[in-house]
Hints:
By secondary structure, the protein is of the alpha+beta class. The protein has one domain (2-9, 22-146). The protein has five helices and five strands; from the N terminus they run E-H-H-E-E-H-E-E-H-H. The chain has helices spanning 8-16, 21-48, 79-82, 100-107, 120-146, and strands spanning 2-4, 56-59, 62-65, 84-89, 92-97. A three-stranded antiparallel sheet has the order 1-5-4.
Amino acid sequence: MIKITPVGRTALRLRGIKFHPMAFRHGIHSALHDAGKIAELHLITLIRTGSRTGLFYKRPWGFHQASAPGEPPKEDFSNLHRSVQYIVRGNQLEVGEALEYGKTLEFGEKNLKGGRRPHIMATQEATQSEAIEFLKRRVSEALRKLS
C-alpha cells in the first residue's frame, strides 16, 4: 500500500488551522478520495494494458506474455487488477491490492522468478502531483463556501 501523508509546509498549514476545521477536513477528505480514484484507475490501467517482454505461457484461451523483472505485472487471470483498492483513513490515502501477491510482485521474494515487478510506486510517482492539486483545489473550494 502507498501512504500519502501531508509533510512540510502543507503539514504545518494543516496543523495551524484553527478556524472552520470541519470545512478543511471535508476538503482534505474529498481530495483524498479524488486522488484515490485516480491512483486506482492508473494502477488498474498499468496492470491491464501495455506490452511486456517476459516469457510466453500457453493458456486454454491462447498465449500469455508475462512481465519481465523491472516491468509492471501483466494481467493473466484478472485477480490482481480486481483486488486494486484505495482506503482513506484520517488524513492518509492508501492505494494497493488486497491480494498479498501484489506486495510480493512490488517488493520481490526469493520464489518470484527473476525479480520484482514494481507497479505501486510507479503509480504513486505518476499521480502524486495530481493528488497535490486535488488537495489545493478542494481546500480552496471549502474556504470559498465559508465566505
